[in-house]
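Practice problem: Acetylxylan esterase
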Amino acid sequence: MAHFDLPLDQLRSYRPDVAEPDDFDDFWGGTLEESRSLASPPVLARVDTKLRTVEAYDMTFSGFGGEPVKAWLLLPAGTSGPLPAIVEYNGYGGGRGLPHERLTWASCGYAHLFMDTRGQGSAGSAGGATADPHGSGPSVPGSMTKGILDPHDYYYRRVFTDAVLAIDAIKALDRVDPARVTVTGGSQGGGIALAAAGLVPDLVGAMPDVPFLAHFQRAVAMTDADPYNEVARYLAVHRGDDAAVFTTLSYFDVVNFSKRATAPALFSVGLMDIICPPSTVFAAANHHAVGAEVVEYAFNGHEGGQGVHWLRQSAWLADRIG
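Answer key — structure tokens:
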């Protein structure tokens, strides 16, 4: 895939106006208040993985509406804390998988919480374990158009709430330092991390890797690739719903969460990425309220920097956490 988006010098300064509803803060404040009022303490069960350097726990915490959400909690063996923590969110369609697939952060001395994404977890080999007990009106296969005509019903209202309450849950653990929590994730997980960074005021940092869910109106019109194309396919059938759809999506556009972030961010972008076009990533990064560094991978698509980028993340985070 050749470079297809704006020239790099324009990407680096690309800061578009993105639709933001007047009641954005009230909407999210009310959503989180309601779900927090229904939350119960997280439940942990030790898992025998045969790993010697990492302890693994099957964790269940209260998410949206008090509903149970699964996660893996991985801790460096033999530590008592308080440890710095990383909360990680998953890519589109994936599940939490198995504990031994997620060893790097715990091996570096962090408490690592990997959140299952409700209603997903059947794409690829990483299976999920969290249901989404909410129905929706007509939708295109996938998650992007579930409940898309009303922000209160929209799928990502539940996911973003789960993401925030995952942070609440890990902060409540004795072996975690609540003042040293970072969020990260790739693709969908990167978008969720940005949403969490805009909703939780005291994070150390955010590391969105090739983030999804940014600048919806540009992305939906620009790429034929899924998942954004799910929205285009929906509108191709439900003609005339454009205004309602993009009004709903404005409550979930992570550009609007970046504007509210209080922690610095390390972004990555693949300049040949047709799934999350580079301009949509830069839109979020250039609106990030407290400064963002963008690592560019000129000849990569949605895979971004992979293991090379993890080295950048680990060094960046070590500088901030110590």
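Discussion: The mean pLDDT is 96. Students who identified this feature from the tokens alone can consider the problem solved.
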